[in-house]
Amino acid sequence: xxxxxxxxxxxxxxxxxxxxxxxxxxxxxxxxxxxxxxxxxxxxxxxxxxxxxxxxxxxxxxxxxxxxxxxxxxxxxxxxxxxxxxxxxxxxxxxxxxxxxxxxxxxxxxxxxxxxxxxxxxxxxxxxxxxxxxxxxxxxxxxxxxxxxxxxxxxxxxxxxxxxxxxxxxxxxxxxxxxxxxxxxxxxxxxxxxxxxxxxxxxxxxxxxxxxxxxxxxxxxxxxxxxxxxxxxxxxxxxxxxxx
Length: 244
Ligand code: ADP
Ligand code: C5P
What we know:
This protein is α/β, with parallel strands linked by helices. It has helices spanning 3-13, 35-45, 65-69, 84-95, 137-140, 153-166, 172-191, 209-231, 235-241; strands at residues 23-29, 51-55, 100-102, 118-120, 125-129, 145-150, 200-203.
């Protein structure tokens, strides 16, 4: 579409004030599948764009004293473990061009108010990452692109053991108990069924450089369309009416 013609079309459609929305990418997959690694690689390749990463972990509910006392019985892999309303509220504010404070979750104390919150400014690209980020349809609807990181269960378990014992200071027996009691069943019941919503499934996570290059190329193409919309704000109206 020639810029001149776009101008004519937008003028003829009237000066409607359409707000530019960020491009939202969802990245789901099992725990330790490589979601964060994939997101970091995408962000690195999109270095010239304003990109922010919002992690679903930031929206874990704080535990009550009772739950803390019996933390080994708490299911952190169930959809109810997350404050999805708060996540939706933060996303709504970012879409309205307002900065938000996102909690920094502490896996050691199981609390979201130990560390200072992170100030997140509105950006061109928002990456939403988490095990159950495709679970709630209202969150899915915010996404322009959905990626599922598909890594074998044994690889995920091996990485989890290493990460939870080394980084989170947990006992290996407790890690294995949590895995068989909660992590594996929740993967089968809640995470795997959301794979069907993905536009792209990446086998082998961060090792799959070809998939990541293709995804970055696609995001750049889409961002180019967003740039056009910056010049011609009413292009959103045109896009919904005509195929460009
Ligand atoms: P997730 O965000 O899905 O939990 P991460 O990207 O944080 O997964 O990876 C989990 C762990 O596995 C981390 O310790 C990370 O360093 C390691 N890891 C991730 N991808 C690879 C890979 N391709 N090869 C080796 N280790 C990896
Ligand atoms: O970063 P990742 O996607 O792996 O984080 C999700 C995992 O973190 C879940 O499998 C959950 O069991 C685990 N978790 C935990 N302790 C917490 C909160 C989450 O082990 N306090």
